[in-house]
Predict the 3D structure of the following.
Amino acid sequence: MRTPTDLHADIGEVLLEEGQIQARIRELGAQISTDYAGRRLTLVSVLKGSLPFMADLMRAISLPLRIDLMEVSSYGGATTESSGLVRILKDLSSSIEGEEVLICEDIIDTGLTLNYLIRYLGGKKPASLRICTLLDKPARRLVEIPVDYTGFTIPDQFVVGYGLDYDELYRNLRFVGVLRPEVYTTPE
Ligand code: IMP
């Protein structure tokens, strides 16, 4: 695995600044708090990329809520292409039967991961199942996904930061940026 010496040097362009992300999450949290008023919510985050988003979104929601975590893998390591194969690496820890479930995703690209998750979680009989994604990249969609809450719609570029990785790195950047193509096209 290539280890960059300077994470920021590998970023070609900052797409979303930290302040923009936080402001949008406050808006999403307020909207969700209004929409689910009087109900108890369960946020299901899809690790690892959605971790910062879920952590910030849950604190922007003023309702009683539970959280649960799933981990799935769709991309095989150092690649920017979806394999289309979804594997569950970690399942829910509690039943969601009868619960109002909101899936928190980092990014929807082809839609294959969420398409699988919607069917998987829907089979567990929640009272409702909705989707909140921080980023939506509609240009590459292969399956239609009913998205209820979207943070930002972005162009067809491979982005990292704020949870999103390339080869497991860059997740700790506070902003979302476009990775320089040389980073994933240059042989080691
Ligand atoms: P999909 O199944 O193609 O919609 O891909 C969903 C998953 O692919 C996301 O949860 C991410 O983990 C990953 N992914 C898609 N696009 C990007 C990107 O631009 N940067 C980093 N990860 C991405």
User: Anything to note?
Assistant: Strands lie at 11-16, 41-47, 65-73, 87-90, 100-108, 128-136, 149-153, 159-160, 176-179.
